[in-house]
Amino acid sequence: MFDTQHFEDRLVTSWLGHNFFYFEELGSTNSYAKKMDRVDTLHGALILADSQLLGRGQYERNWEATPGQNLTFSLVFEPQNADRLTILTLACAKAIADVCAEQIEGSAELKWPNDVLIDGKKLAGLLTEAVFNGSVLERVIVGIGINVNQLEFSGELSEKATSLYLLSGKKYSRERVLAHILTKIEFYYRLWLKQDIELVKTINKSLIGFGSWTRLNVNGLDKEGKFKFLGVNEKGSLIVLNKELEVDTFSYEQVRINLA
Ligand code: BTN
């Protein structure tokens, strides 16, 4: 069982995660965060479920996590506008990558648009959703699933997924790992708010395929030829150089990168 007291004792952030909503069992932390009443500010709120029954992933997929072994949570932010949300997601992914790499004394990479991979296998996934009141942005929810102490994955996940425990052979305190991650996310959030170009450069260095010639799939169709992957711009849009040496920019919905 997730020990909320243990977590709160270790939390050293200024604002992130202090407004903490814990559930032993919940459908989806993202769905819950979307529906929460905004009596007061929800900026920085943390919603965590020890067991998530209907975890949602990208592209309408499910997110599976064995209860009591992993981290499944959502963070609520209240930025001024919905610009640059892709780079915010990547900043959170980078925070997770940094902390998890440190935990296993290895290195972690980011897979566009929002996965954290170690040794080519998925360790964590993020799902960012925005809630609008008419045309006004009310809140942004960054949902995060991290495989921490899970030892077995079913079906095709057994080939594609990994956990901190599988990588290092050590069991982890989820409370400590989460406290570390929130500190790092708070740090990157500040850079994101300042539109710090260093953040973009840092993210780009962690992106799988950065600087290499890759294949692209746009709106489900494979594009002919190869493209040099130049990383993301300050909005988080993906930039490539085509074979005519022209720069093409893609938004997150449209494109997948296939390492050639
Ligand atoms: C993905 O890789 O497809 C994104 C997975 C995101 C999963 C997390 S778990 C906590 C939060 N609540 C959800 O329903 N989904 C996200």
State the low-pLDDT regions, or none: none
Number of helices: 7
CATH architecture of the largest domain: 2-Layer Sandwich
Bound ions, cofactors and other small molecules, one mention each: biotin
What class would the helix/strand composition place it in? alpha+beta
What is the terminal separation in angstroms?
43 Å
What is Rg?
Answer: 18 Å
- Tell me the series of helices and strands, N- to C-terminal: HEHEEHEEEEHHHHEEEEEE
What general form does the structure show?
globular
How is the main sheet built? Answer: 7 strands, mixed
Helix content, binned percent: 25-40%
What is the fold-level CATH name, i.e. the topology of the largest domain? BirA Bifunctional Protein, domain 2
Give the full name of the CATH homologous superfamily of the largest domain: Bira Bifunctional Protein, Domain 2
Number of strands: 13
Major sheet: order of its strands? 1-2-3-7-6-5-4
Give the strand content: 25-35%
> What is the CATH first-level class name of the largest domain?
Alpha Beta
Structural domain count: 2
